[in-house]
Design goal:
228 residues, alpha/beta, 38% helix, eight-stranded mixed sheet, homodimer
């Protein structure tokens, strides 16, 4: 599969790029600048070895090329990114929004959030690009932990979306990352809660002087696709 | 210590009563009706054995008697309860609000929330009883699991509050319940997030046909009092 990571030059996106490419996926890093995209892709290949399939290009081209498009950008730039890629996203394409509406977007604190007009960051994205098949995920997964390839992940991913098939596709990618699990958290509106949980983790990290607190969901030994 | 559980006749409150009394605490169940409080206290003693110290009385008397007062009531009745006990809560008493503002309070769904004017249910409580020393906790701990005394707990408690000493007192009680841990989630306003996480668990329970999904926080082997 061709996986696009817009914001793949940032910590979370670069970590996701490394993990997915390490699992054997072809990852296309999207960046505002084609040159920066290519530079960061080269850095990923340097880390992973020459056999890794990582390319870099513009956000627009990356949005066209990926079968699944991850968007991992700060909330302050999220709407602009979606406006930029809007005409480059095919009808029904699975787009995974990873944005948390942290108050840093408006000069506030990272353990506080703002409330997007549409309810959540992903619903704002959906309003801007209605033709995409949106899934929200990865809000509570530490970018630092994703980047530390030698360390096993210790976190569950909350996956929200309307379309069970899209969630299963994204879930399949999550399952390729060792020790990462996914929990179907419900429809897209549940991102109103899942997105804010990032801020709770920031607060916990701050209190305990950590960088990579995460959540595991208890109650079942395995999660993943409901009914499986 | 004398521990009051207002709403101790409900599932969450009764579970908390059983667990704290089993740990050796004296628990006073508060109820609108003194008789109902006493009946439910007798039921707790029946479950725990005659040595258990559980009494039942009115909410008002229970609020006076407890050194720490837990309030475990549905959001729809929360404000009325605080108005009722307001004059019976001593200045500075530690009050642990466990309310989640689920949309069921207004006829909506349990996996959806309403947004209290003050930001969170506990901040609404604080506005009604400003003299109490509020802590918010237990939103994401299954009442069913609390009641099932033979089963070990498998959940972390998010504890929010302004006063570290009050959080440590509540944390000490949590640590008396085997296998339950507490995580300091920050100041009282962080309950704006922690309270809504109940709804996310309801969604997960609904999707996977469970009753007792919970959260564990990863990133440290032990949590509890920060800096310890």
């Amino acid at each position: 599969m061709d996986i696009t990571v817009i914001g793949g030059t940032g910590e979370e996106g670069f970590g996701l790029t490394l993990r997915l490419a390490k699992a054997g996926e072809h990852v296309i890093i999207g960046s505002r600048s084609e040159e920066k995209g290519q530079t960061v892709a080269a850095k990923a290949r340097e880390i992973l070895g020459a056999s890794a399939a990582v390319d870099g290009t513009t956000n627009e081209k990356a949005a066209e090329q990926g079968d699944v498009v991850f968007v991992t950008v700060p909330f302050a730039g999220q709407a602009d990114i979606y406006r930029a890629i809007k005409d480059h996203v095919a009808e029904g394409k699975v787009v995974v929004d990873c944005t948390s509406p942290l108050a840093t977007a408006v000069g506030g604190r990272a353990w506080q959030v703002v409330r997007p007009w549409h309810g959540s960051a992903v619903e704002q994205a959906k309003a801007l690009v209605p033709k995409a098949n949106f899934v929200a995920a990865f809000h509570t997964v530490s970018g630092e932990q994703l980047r530390a390839l030698e360390r096993p992940m210790d976190s569950d991913v909350f996956v929200c979306g309307k379309d069970p098939a899209a969630k299963a596709i994204v879930g399949g990618l999550i399952e390729e990352i060792p020790n990462l699990r996914w929990v179907d958290a419900g429809d897209l509106t549940m991102a109103r809660i899942a997105e804010t949980m990032t801020a709770l983790l920031v607060s916990v990290n701050r209190t305990y002087k950590l960088h990579d607190a995460g959540f595991r969901v208890t109650g079942r030994d395995a999660w993943g696709k409901p009914g499986s």
